[in-house]
């Protein structure tokens, strides 16, 4: 893999990953954790696959409370390339500020926004897709990378593919972005072969992104450019920025206007949204045994399947249970099933309502 000229990686590193509680918490979110057993956190894995195509052109936007941890995990990234948000304002503010900074820094820049907490099994295929996307972005398109769906998921939004994009083999017009569908609708989508999962990956020239935002909210764009021009104003101006996702602020209206294209890609993508997806990612498909994330000597599994995380360091025995999820940490124990993995976020909500912020 070779570096893409003037290509910058923007990595929004936020979110608490509430469906992965008690492993992931606001103080130690999933992007800072090693969830794949490789010895590298998800954030470090993101750096590993982006570094060959961006060299040192790397910006991370993260919460103020995580800046030190991010810097510690990414010693290759200078302090000035880690932007600390005073508070969470959703993805448009974070990515838009990075775009405004790059607009000033590199007039020829093309930026790609890639979440810090995703797993990609085929980095070479990822790099090829990004290269195609960057080529289209140089012609002033807003480009997204559409993930080839592997099953009819109702947990992801979808991208409806249109015609091929002239001059850019591998890219297609986007007809529309579709919100998370029912399982039946998702199955119909897959049958057409014209839909891809929306993983929130966008490749675009910074000025194009900001001007698309200005068409919807000119004050928002002006505020982002003002902060980039005067970084000392970040603290005072940040809380007044709209709290909205890039998909809603820019991508959806731009797609409706015919200004978005998609590069379909099969890259082994997973957002590790809950313990069921984590178990699927880690499981040995040739064996019916229990999957252990951590020291296998701390788990005794008899006639049992599922995922066990012995993070508290004590022995865990699981007997006669199928598709179980056991996550043991020093101050909290989760016991559920893979089928109920999505409901873990309700535990976090209940703890917050009960004033137990020390556990969330």
Write structural notes for this entry.
The protein is globular, with a radius of gyration of 21 Å. It has helices spanning 42-54, 67-73, 90-105, 123-137, 183-192, 206-216, 218-229, 234-238, 246-256, 275-282, 344-353, and strands spanning 7-13, 58-63, 82-85, 110-113, 119-120, 142-147, 158-164, 172-178, 195-204, 260-265, 269-270, 291-292, 299-302, 306-310, 316-319, 324-329, 332-337. Helices cover 33% and strands 24% of the residues. With 360 residues, the protein is α/β, with parallel strands linked by helices. Helix 3 (90-105) packs across helix 7.
The H-and-E topology, N to C, reads as EHEHEHEEHEEEHEHHHHEEHEEEEEEH
Sequence of strands across the biggest β-sheet = 6-9-7-8-10
Number of strands: 17
* Termini gap: 40 Å
SS-derived structural category:
alpha/beta
Radius of gyration: 21 Å
Q: Which percent band covers the strand fraction?
A: 15-25%
The largest β sheet comes out as: 5 strands, mixed, barrel
Helix content: 25-40%
Mean pLDDT, as a whole number?
Answer: 95
């Amino acid at each position: 893999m070779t570096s893409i000229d003037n290509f910058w990686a923007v990595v929004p590193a936020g979110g608490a990953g509430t469906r992965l509680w008690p492993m992931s918490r606001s103080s130690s979110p999933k992007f800072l954790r090693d969830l794949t057993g490789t010895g590298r956190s998800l954030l470090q894995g993101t750096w590993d696959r982006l570094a060959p195509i961006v060299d040192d052109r790397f910006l991370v936007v993260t919460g103020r409370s995580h800046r030190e941890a991010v810097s510690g995990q990414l010693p290759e990234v200078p302090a000035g390339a880690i932007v600390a948000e005073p508070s969470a304002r959703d993805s448009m503010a974070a990515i838009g500020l990075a775009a405004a900074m790059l607009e000033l820094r590199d007039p020829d820049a093309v930026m790609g926004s890639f979440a810090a907490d995703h797993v990609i099994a085929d980095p070479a295929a990822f790099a090829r897709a990004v290269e195609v996307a960057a080529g289209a972005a140089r012609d002033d398109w807003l480009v997204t990378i559409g993930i080839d769906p592997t099953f009819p998921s109702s947990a992801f939004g979808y991208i409806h593919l249109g015609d091929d994009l002239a001059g850019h083999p591998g890219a297609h017009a986007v007809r529309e972005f579709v919100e998370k569908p029912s399982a039946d609708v998702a199955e119909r989508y897959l049958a057409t072969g014209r839909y891809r999962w929306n993983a929130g990956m966008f490749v675009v020239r910074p000025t194009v992104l900001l001007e698309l935002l200005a068409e919807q909210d000119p004050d928002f764009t002006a505020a982002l450019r003002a902060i980039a021009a005067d970084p000392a104003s970040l603290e005072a101006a940040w809380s007044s920025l709209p709290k909205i996702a890039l998909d809603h602020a820019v991508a959806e209206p731009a797609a409706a206007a015919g200004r978005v294209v998609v590069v379909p890609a099969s890259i082994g993508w997973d957002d590790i949204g809950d313990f069921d997806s984590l178990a699927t990612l880690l499981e040995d498909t040739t064996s019916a045994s229990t999957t252990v994330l951590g020291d296998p000597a701390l788990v005794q599994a008899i006639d049992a399947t599922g995922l066990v995380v012995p993070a508290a360091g004590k022995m865990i025995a699981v007997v006669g249970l199928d598709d179980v999820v056991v996550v043991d940490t020093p101050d909290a124990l989760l016991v559920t099933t893979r089928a109920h993995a999505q409901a873990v976020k309700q535990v976090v909500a209940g703890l917050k309502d009960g004033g137990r912020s020390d556990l969330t």
